[in-house]
Amino acid sequence: MAGGEEIVAPVEYPSHADNLELCLKTITDGFSEVASRVKTKPAAISFAFPGPSYYPEGIIGDLGNLPAFRGGVPLGPMLAHKFGVPVFINNDGDLFALGEALGGFLPYINHKLEAAGSTKRYKNLIGLTIGTGLGGGIVHNGRLFIGDNSAAGEVWLLRNTKHPHTFMEESVCIRAVQRVYRENTSTRQDEVLTAKQIFEIARGERDGNQAAAEQAFAELGAALGECIANVVTLVDGLVVVGGGLSNAYALFATAMMQSLRNGIENFDRSRTINRLELDCFDLENSAELPKFLQGEMKQLSVPAGERKIHYDAMKRTGIGSSRLGTSRAVSLGAYVFALGELGSL
Q1: How far apart are the C-alpha atoms of 252 and 239, rounded to whole Å?
Q2: Is residue 97 within 8 Å of 333, Cβ to Cβ?
Q3: Residue 332 · residue 97 · CB < 8 Å
Q4: Average pLDDT in the 157-180 region?
Q5: What three-state secondary structure class fits 317?
Q6: 334: closest CA among 1, 63, 30?
Q7: 282: helix, coil or strand?
Q8: What is the pLDDT of residue 345?
């Protein structure tokens, strides 16, 4: 990227997940090809890589999907030596959140608020990616928050409230959609439909059990809502959803919002309170967006004087889908992160 714009078409190679030598060669060849297509020497290499990893040090840890890296591999230092430039590696969920915070969902909503005459502005964003897995990232005041062990935003490890012996990802990913559909149909165990096929069945565009398909996405939405509630409680910001399954937003949004708005009780059930201190809005819903933008303006008299103040009394958050597309957001996040580390921002 240069100036926040893509200047080289994407390069794709097979991962060679089980062969470290081939995998490292593939990565090196890919960056070499990209470098050969630009007119000047790149200032840095910045990209996403799955975790768990020690991102600031550029060390890739024990990965379930890339067994070749088990035991730890200093990928960043290897690439820095090879290309002679700084190398920055981050989690894709983190970079997705950063890209949407700086050039996507966050400025989009703040622009909407400004146009509506609201005094409210947002500085914090939670980014969630749902696809083969569940990823997350947190941006605080325009900067990526990765934590002391580069392990912040690991939302996939939240406890799954529907299946408490499992982690949250087991209900918020492609395999969850496939599992729930299979459990509610007479589908053979060896007959696995893709998430896209189940999506098409739910929309009535393909033959199949539509009720089961709708249930699959509803259960995903309910779990995602619980995930969002836990993170918003700690972070207090807007939420943007990306990843392949975000294309099914309309199918899971209702269950997601219901989960966010459900009441919870004290131990003896004598008191019910809202799941969150904040009001939650689906910002993709044309009926809810205006209420979110309007807020609740109030006027108060300052004691011992005649001065009055105005403020927005509605504590609120909003959830919506990616404005950049997941790949574009990750690329922009990687670019901006590198600029920040190089002192160019």
Answers
A1: 15
A2: yes
A3: no
A4: 96
A5: strand
A6: 1
A7: strand
A8: 65
Closest to 161 measured CA to CA, from 226, 101, 214: 226
- Tell which residue, 243, 244, 241, 248, has the closest CA to residue 200: 248
User: Which one is the CATH code of 94-324: 3.30.420.40, 3.30.365.10, 3.60.110.10, 3.40.605.10?
Assistant: 3.30.420.40
pLDDT at 74 over 90: yes
* Residue appearing with tokens 């012996």: 165
CB 127 within 8 A of CB 137: yes
C-alpha span between 247 and 343 (Å, rounded): 36
What are the two backbone dihedrals, phi and then psi, of residue 239, each rounded to the nearest 5 degrees?
-130, 130
Residue ranges of the chain assigned to CATH 3.30.420.40: 20-90, 94-324
- Phi, psi (5° rounding) for residue 58? 75, 25
Give the pLDDT confidence of 177-192 residue by residue, as tens digits. 999 999 999 766 667 8
**Is residue 191 packed enough to be buried (19+ CB in 10 Å), middle (13-18) or exposed (0-12)?**
exposed
Question: Is residue 9 packed enough to be buried (19+ CB in 10 Å), middle (13-18) or exposed (0-12)?
Answer: exposed
| pTM, rounded to two decimals | 0.93
> For the purposes of burial, counting CB atoms within 10 Å of the CB of 338, is it exposed (0-12), middle (13-18) or buried (19 or more)?
buried
Q: How many residues does the chain have?
A: 345
In DSSP notation, 39-66 reads SS--S-EEEE--SSEEGGGTEE---SS-
**Of residues 337, 334, 331, 340, the one with CA closest to residue 9:** 331
324: pLDDT confidence band, cut at 50, 70 and 90?
very high
Report the chain's mean pLDDT, rounded to a whole number.
Answer: 93
Element (H, E) at 27: helix 20-37
- According to DSSP, the residues that pair with 54 across neighbouring strands are 59
Q: Which CATH number fits domain 20-90: 3.40.50.11930, 3.40.50.1000, 3.30.420.40, 3.10.360.10?
A: 3.30.420.40
